[in-house]
Design a protein that fits this description.
about 475 residues, alpha/beta, Rossmann fold, 6-stranded parallel sheet, 18 helices, globular, binds uridine-5'-diphosphate
Length: about 475
């Protein structure tokens, strides 16, 4: 009897660091599960990103249609999506149609970031099953799904400017959701705001895919996932992906910036749970004023800190502040790097707190390692992630919408000293539940098994395989 080739999945991530990292880990987990992977990245990412993957992966590249000097981030990220939708779409279709033509097995399934809505239409046109992945929190995705409801119930746009007013029309979140916890674009007051339109449109497509893969775990977002099942019946909650992969195999580090590992040596000489780690992820930027408020707040708190300041993340206004270049007050207590091996830092016994921008990957990494957080969200899903940390999970403080050295000083002291034991205990409970979800029979472990089985079944039904 002729043996069928293994399913061949094309994985198409969003060309941004956080989503890309998460998708690489998912792809590796599938590869371990016996699935052949072609990993599709934009030319831009391929040029700037030293992608190290499982040796069995095929890497393919595709144009995002933008000139090389386009920033592809910040206020310009919608331009990138528009270009992907118009310029990349026909190229993607061509890739799928031609797969297998030059030897090798044809693509039998697509797994794409669900925000790339066009991939769903293309996969349908060529008759290939598609699964969507969203790499942000289920909570944020649920807010995107709820945008129409927010509008019909007249909670959006806001009437008046009280950001502390409670938002009632999002099922499952009525107890804690305030206006200020909605994605930041909701504050624009304009329903024609391009971001509101974009997230509404692209998210609507998700339930039409064969299934929705999320980087979360059931125990963490159970109430939200229960609500989402009403819209998306087939959800695979397989996170935290970074730890899931580690549990199955050693992960390959992937980074746009070189990691400065000297900070691990510095941490080795610090007392247990004494260091606050600060990082605002790969996209957020700070003004010089904000940077200095953080600096003074930290130094005045008297706590030890390890701070990631990406060289491109601050508007230096032409000069590096003398406090930072000399670091007189902080020399013994503080350490600054341009980019850190974050997962290892969070797992280090000297780290007792994380001041974060509440990116979803950073949040999951911190939850998994049992590190309490101070949240200072920058945009999008970070607004709701930080609320979950502070109010729903009680894992620390939500410091959004303020950047004042006195508030920072007090909040840091509260996390690292005054309420240290309480938060560490809570974080430890959450970490245990995250680890349990990845062990044999745990929720994420079982969801991944089911996903692999479903990909195999769907792939076997594709015409090219008959
Ligand atoms: N990260 C890192 N070193 C750093 C800062 C961040 O390796 O110095 C990693 C971090 O572990 C996480 C990712 O960068 O996996 C940031 O993703 P997240 O979703 O938290 O935020 P984004 O960068 O998308 O805003």
């Amino acid at each position: 009897m002729e043996q069928k080739p293994p399913p061949h999945v094309m994985v198409f991530p969003l060309p941004l660091q956080g989503p890309l990292n998460a998708m690489l880990k998912l792809a590796e987990l599938l590869c371990i599960g016996g699935i052949q992977i072609t990993f599709l990245v934009t030319d831009h990412i391929h040029r700037h990103f030293n992608i190290q993957t499982h040796p069995a992966f095929l890497i393919r590249t595709i144009s995002d249609g933008l000139p090389e000097n386009h920033p592809r981030e910040g206020g310009k990220y919608l331009e990138m999506f528009e270009s992907l939708r118009t310029n990349t779409r026909p190229l993607f279709k061509e890739l799928l149609l031609q797969s297998g033509a030059g030897g090798g097995s044809p693509i039998s399934c697509v797994i794409a970031d669900g925000v790339l809505g066009f991939t769903f239409d293309v996969a349908n046109e060529v008759g290939i099953p598609i699964f969507d992945v969203r790499t942000l929190s289920a909570a944020c995705l649920w807010l995107f799904y709820s945008l129409p409801k927010l509008i019909t119930s007249r909670e959006l746009p806001f009437i008046g400017d009280d950001l502390d007013e409670m938002v009632k029309s999002v099922p499952g979140m009525g107890r804690y959701l305030r206006r200020r916890d909605l994605p930041s674009f909701c504050r624009s007051g304009d329903l024609d705001d391009p971001s509101i339109r974009f997230y509404q449109t692209e998210t609507i497509e998700n339930p039409r895919a064969c299934g929705l893969i999320l980087n979360t775990f059931e125990e963490l977002e159970a109430p939200i996932l229960a609500e989402m099942h009403n819209v998306c019946p087939n959800i695979y909650a397989v996170g935290p992906l970074h730890a899931h992969l580690k549990a199955k195999l050693a992960a390959f580090p992937n980074s746009l910036w070189e990691e400065d590992r000297s900070c691990l040596t510095w941490l080795d000489s610090q007392p247990l749970k004494s260091v606050l780690y600060l990082s605002f992820g790969s996209l957020a930027t700070l003004s010089r004023y904000q940077l200095m408020e953080f600096w003074h707040g930290l130094v005045n708190s008297g706590q030890r800190f390890l701070w990631v300041i990406r060289p491109d993340s601050v508007d230096w206004e032409g000069r590096i502040p003398v406090e930072l270049s000399q670091g007189a007050a902080a020399k013994e207590k503080g350490y600054i790097v341009g980019w850190a091996p974050q997962v290892e830092v969070l797992a280090h016994p000297a780290v007792g707190g994380f001041l974060t921008h509440s990116g979803w990957n950073s949040t999951l990494e911190s939850v998994y390692e049992g590190v309490p957080m101070i949240c200072w969200p920058y945009f999008l899903d970070q607004q709701i992630n930080s609320r979950l940390v502070g109010e729903e999970w009680k894992l620390g403080f939500d410091m959004k919408d303020t950047c004042d050295r006195n508030v920072i000083e007090e909040t840091v002291r509260n996390l690292m000293q005054v309420r240290k034991e309480e938060f560490l205990r809570r974080a430890d409970e959450m970490a245990k539940s995250a680890k349990a979800s990845l062990s044999e029979g745990g929720s994420s472990y079982s969801h991944l098994d089911r996903l692999i089985q479903d990909i195999k079944t769907k792939s076997a039904q594709v015409g090219k395989f008959e």
